[in-house]
Design goal:
23 strands, 3 domains, flavoprotein, single chain, nucleotide-binding, five-stranded parallel β-sheet, 482 residues, Pyr_nuc-diS_OxRdtase, FAD/NAD(P)-binding domain, NAD, alpha/beta
Length: 482
C-alpha cells in the first residue's frame, strides 16, 4: 500500500471542497465555524446524490410503504374500514404513486435548499459547476456556461460520491429498466417489479414496492438475501418477504434485461427467464473519481477506482483529503459526514479521533428494519472475537405484543471475560432508533451491567435491550459467583 501523506499539521486559511454531499457540506460547516474561508463546488445541488436521488427520496418512499404496512395491519387491532380486495396482502388502501413521488422529490429539493441556505448563512461560498484538481492543491471549476474559474486553496477535500453501476446487457432507460436514481419517475405502482441485486438497496426497494402493492421478484446471487448482514437477521427478513409475497430467485445472476412490447424480460444465468412490467438494477455503485485530475496531483487510486485514504481522511497527496463514497469506506452518509469533519479537524491540527469503522451503526430500511453496530456474528463464529452472545426475540416483549410486532429480536455481543459490549443487532420496526443505546455502549466500551441497570420505560421495545443485557450478565460472572 502506498503510504498516505504524513505532512506536518497546518491551519489552512482557505479550503476548497469538491462535492456537496454529506462529506462535503458537513466539512464546509465545520470549517466555516472555525473561521476558515470555504468554497464548495457542486453541479447538482447541495446534498448531492444522498439528498437528491438516493438516501432522502428512497427512505421517504420506504416511509410511505411503512405507512401502508401499518394500514394493512390495522384490522388486527380491531380497526375496520373498506372491503378486503382480491389480493390477500392488501386492504382497500392504495398508493397514489404520482403523489408519492411528487412528495418525495419535493422533500429532497426542500432538504437541498435548506442545506444551501445553512451553508450561505455560515459564510460558505457556493459555486455551481464541476471541479477538477489543479496542482498543487487548487481547484479548476467548469461553470454551467462552459467558462472556467480557478479557486485557490490551501487544502482541498474531494467528496464526489458515487453513481449506480450498470451492466452492459441491462442498460437503464429510465422508463422500464431503472437504476435507483430513476425509480422516482414512475407515475403508477409497477405491476411486477423485478429487482436485480439482494444487497441493501435491492432488499429495501423490494420491501417497499411490495408494501405499496406491486408484485416483486428479487434476484439474489447468494443463498440468502442481504449476504453481508447478520444471518439471523437475514432469515427474519426472508420469512417476512415470504409472508407478504416477495418472490426470491436465489443463487442466480441476471445476464441481461431487455424491454418487451409492454414490459421487461430478465434472463438469469441459470437459464430462467423472468417477465415483469419493470426492472430495477441494484448491483452496486462506482466512485465518481474519473476526470478529477487526481493522478496529476499525486492522489493514489485503488484498483476499484476509489481514492485511497487513511483513518483521518488524508490522501497520498499533501493537503488533499477525501471523504464519502469516493473513498471506498462504508458507503453511508453518516460515514461520509464523519470523514469530512475528521478531515477539517486534522488539517487544523486539533485533537482528532480517527475513523473507526467497527463503531459505525448502520441500518437496512426494510420491513422490519435491521440495525447493526460493532462485532458481527460471523466474526465471532470465525474465532476473530471471543464473545458471549444473547439473542432475545421481541415476541416476549409486552410493547411488541401491543403493537402487533411478530418479527424481530435484540442480539448483544459481550467480550468474553470482561463483559464489555462489543456489538449488537436489532431487528424491529424503527431498529434505526433502537440501535443508538447499543452504539453508545460499543463506542464507550460499557459493561453489559451498565446497560442492564439503566432504567427503561415500561412497556417499551428498549426493555428488550436491557433484558438481553441482564441475561448476558449470567455469562460473564466469575466462576466463584456462579
Amino acid at each position: 500500500m502506498t503510504p498516505v501523506n504524513s505532512a506536518k499539521h497546518f491551519a489552512p486559511d482557505r479550503v476548497a471542497i469538491i462535492g456537496g454531499g454529506p462529506g462535503g457540506y458537513e466539512a464546509a460547516m465545520v470549517a466555516a465555524d472555525a473561521g476558515v474561508e470555504v468554497t464548495i463546488i457542486e453541479d447538482q445541488g447541495m446534498g448531492g446524490s444522498a439528498v437528491l436521488t438516493d438516501v432522502v427520496p428512497s427512505k421517504t418512499l420506504i416511509a410511505t410503504a411503512d405507512a401502508m404496512r401499518r394500514v394493512n395491519a390495522s384490522t388486527s387491532f380491531g380497526v375496520r374500514f373498506g372491503e378486503t380486495g382480491d389480493d390477500k396482502y392488501e386492504t382497500s388502501a392504495w398508493a397514489d404513486f404520482s403523489r408519492v413521488n411528487e412528495r418525495l422529490l419535493k422533500l429532497a429539493q426542500t432538504q437541498s435548499l435548506d442545506i444551501h441556505r445553512s451553508l450561505e448563512s455560515a459564510g460558505v461560498r457556493i459555486i455551481s459547476g464541476r471541479g477538477r484538481l489543479a496542482p498543487p492543491h487548487n481547484v479548476e471549476v467548469t461553470l454551467p456556461d462552459g467558462e472556467t474559474q480557478l479557486v485557490e486553496a490551501d487544502a482541498v477535500i474531494v467528496a464526489t460520491g458515487a453513481h449506480p453501476r450498470e451492466l452492459k446487457t441491462a442498460k437503464p432507460d429510465g422508463e422500464r429498466i431503472l437504476n435507483w436514481t430513476q425509480a422516482y419517475s414512475l407515475t403508477e405502482v409497477p405491476e411486477h417489479m423485478i429487482v436485480v441485486g439482494s444487497g441493501v438497496t435491492g432488499a429495501e426497494f423490494a420491501s417497499a414496492y411490495r408494501r405499496l402493492g406491486a408484485e416483486v421478484t428479487l434476484v439474489s446471487s447468494r443463498d440468502q438475501v442481504l449476504p453481508g448482514e447478520d444471518s439471523d437477521a437475514a432469515a427474519v427478513l426472508e420469512d417476512a418477504f415470504s409472508r407478504v409475497g416477495v418472490q426470491v430467485a436465489a443463487r442466480a445472476r441476471a445476464n441481461s434485461a431487455e424491454r418487451t412490447a409492454d414490459g421487461v424480460r430478465v434472463t438469469l444465468n441459470n437459464g430462467r427467464v423472468l417477465e415483469g412490467s419493470h426492472c430495477l438494477m441494484a448491483v452496486g455503485g462506482l466512485p465518481n473519481t474519473a476526470g478529477l485530475g487526481l493522478e496529476e496531483c499525486g492522489v493514489d487510486i485503488t484498483e476499484s477506482g476509489h481514492i485511497r485514504v487513511d483513518t483521518v481522511s488524508r490522501t497520498t497527496a499533501t493537503n488533499i483529503y477525501a471523504a464519502g463514497d469516493c473513498t471506498g469506506m462504508l458507503p453511508l452518509a453518516s460515514v461520509a459526514a464523519m470523514q469530512g469533519r475528521i478531515a477539517v479537524a486534522h488539517m487544523q491540527g486539533g485533537a482528532v479521533k480517527p475513523l473507526q469503522l467497527h463503531r459505525v451503526a448502520s441500518n437496512v430500511f426494510t420491513s422490519p428494519e435491521i440495525a447493526t453496530v460493532g462485532v458481527t456474528q460471523s466474526q465471532v463464529d470465525s474465532g476473530k472475537y471471543q464473545a458471549d452472545v444473547v439473542k432475545l426475540d421481541l415476541a416476549t416483549n409486552p410493547r411488541a405484543k401491543m403493537m402487533n410486532i411478530g418479527d424481530g429480536f435484540v442480539k448483544i455481543f459481550a467480550r468474553r471475560g470482561s463483559g464489555t459490549v462489543i456489538g449488537a443487532v436489532v431487528v424491529a420496526p424503527r431498529a434505526s432508533e433502537l440501535i443508538y443505546p447499543l452504539a453508545l455502549a460499543v463506542t464507550h466500551k460499557l459493561h453489559v451491567d451498565d446497560v442492564a441497570t439503566t432504567f427503561t420505560v415500561y412497556p417499551s421495545l428498549t426493555g428488550s435491550i436491557a433484558e438481553a443485557a441482564r441475561r448476558l450478565h449470567l455469562h460473564v460472572l466469575d466462576p466463584a459467583e456462579e
